[in-house]
Amino acid sequence: MTGTPTAAPFLTAWFEILDGDEPSRILDLISDDFSLSILFSTGDGNATDFAGDRAALVGYLEQRERGTRTHHLLSATTLGQDELFLGEVRRAGVPEASFVAAGRVNGEGRLQRLLIGRSSEIRFT
């Protein structure tokens, strides 16, 4: 992703860190009461749900293929504490999947809730 201004600054920064050399830095951005669900579909009829708290996020990070996929913003908005981010996942620059992320940022500027859905069966580009 580029440094272009966006209506979802927290999630934009989150995905930039996730795509970078030290994706575990996102662990510094979550609240003490953080919870998430990342529903990850590859289009073969199977999906994996990484759901829970900090430990679930650590598990998600450990299984990721680091440096192979990048997240690209298609559209975004912020409504109060909530950010919505529609994006595309690319592998080596080739579109692989679409995803939508919803995050709630608490008053201390930390991510409290995260919901992500990913599918290779639909494109928004």
Which second-level CATH architecture applies?
Answer: Roll
What structural class do helix, strand and pairing data support? alpha+beta
Percent helix, as a range, is 10-25%
Secondary structure tally: strands: 6
Show unreliable segments: none
> Helical region count?
2
CATH topology category name: Nuclear Transport Factor 2, Chain: A
Rg over CA atoms: 14 Å
> CATH first level: which class?
Alpha Beta
Number of domains: 1
Task: Report the end-to-end length measured between terminal Cα atoms.
Answer: 16 Å
> How confident overall, as mean pLDDT?
91
Strand order of the largest sheet: 2-1-6-5-4-3
In percent terms, what proportion of residues is strand?
over 45%
Dominant shape: globular
Fold topology:
Layout: H1 9-18, E1 30-41, E2 47-52, H2 54-63, E3 69-79, E4 82-91, E5 94-105, E6 111-119
Parallel strand pairs: 1-6
Antiparallel strand pairs: 1-2, 3-4, 4-5, 5-6
Brief summary of the model shown:
The chain has 125 residues and is an alpha+beta fold.
Description:
- This protein has 125 residues and is an alpha+beta fold.
- It has one domain: Nuclear Transport Factor 2, Chain: A, CATH 3.10.450.
- The chain contains two helices and six strands, in the order H-E-E-H-E-E-E-E.
- The chain has a six-stranded mixed β-sheet, with helices on one face.
- The radius of gyration is 14 Å and the shape is globular.
- The chain starts with 8 loop residues before the first helix and ends in a 6-residue tail after the last strand.
- The model has no long low-confidence stretch (mean pLDDT 91).
- This is SnoaL-like domain-containing protein.
